């Protein structure tokens, strides 16, 4: 029996699902987990479109949000905005 790998992208179909996903990772994960989650969200929304809206190249965004990436806060902030979300501290 062939195993199909899990990809959260398959479940992030609505803005509400994306918001809940990022909220949960922000509350329970660390910075690396959040960057990974942001990568997942960008893939769900369309990496090229998110990169364009964030003002970076697709290649740069893939690299920044990769497992070994270390994006600048400005990149993270702009990607969050490009996803149609806002950053809030509670």
How does this model look, in words?
The protein is mainly alpha-helical. It contains five helices and no strands. Helix 1 runs antiparallel to helix 2, helix 3 crosses helix 4 and helix 3 crosses helix 5. The longest helix has 15 residues, at 31-45. It is globular and about 45 Å long. The mean pLDDT is 95.
SSE string, helices as H and strands as E: HHHHH
Radius of gyration: 13 Å
Global mean pLDDT: 95
The number of helical segments is 5
Question: Based on DSSP secondary structure assignment, what is the total number of beta strands?
Answer: 0
What is the percent of helical residues? 55-70%
Low-confidence stretches: none
Main sheet properties: none
Distance between the termini: 46 Å
Q: Determine the strand fraction and express it as a percent band.
A: under 5%
Shape: globular
Structural class: mainly alpha
Topology:
Blueprint lengths: L14 H14 L2 H15 L1 H8 L3 H7 L8 H10 L8
Helix pairs in contact: 1-2, 2-3, 3-4, 3-5
Produce a short descriptive summary.
The protein is an all-alpha fold and 90 residues long.
Characteristic key phrases:
90 residues; mainly alpha; 5 helices; 60% helix; 0% strand
């Amino acid at each position: 029996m062939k195993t199909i790998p899990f990809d959260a992208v398959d479940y992030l179909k609505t803005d509400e699902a994306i918001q809940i996903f990022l909220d949960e990772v922000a509350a329970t994960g660390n910075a690396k987990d959040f960057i990974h989650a942001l990568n997942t969200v960008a893939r769900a929304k369309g990496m090229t479109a998110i990169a364009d809206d964030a003002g970076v190249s697709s290649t740069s965004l893939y690299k920044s949000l990769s497992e070994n990436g270390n994006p600048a806060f400005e990149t993270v902030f702009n990607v969050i905005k490009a996803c149609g979300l806002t950053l809030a501290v509670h």
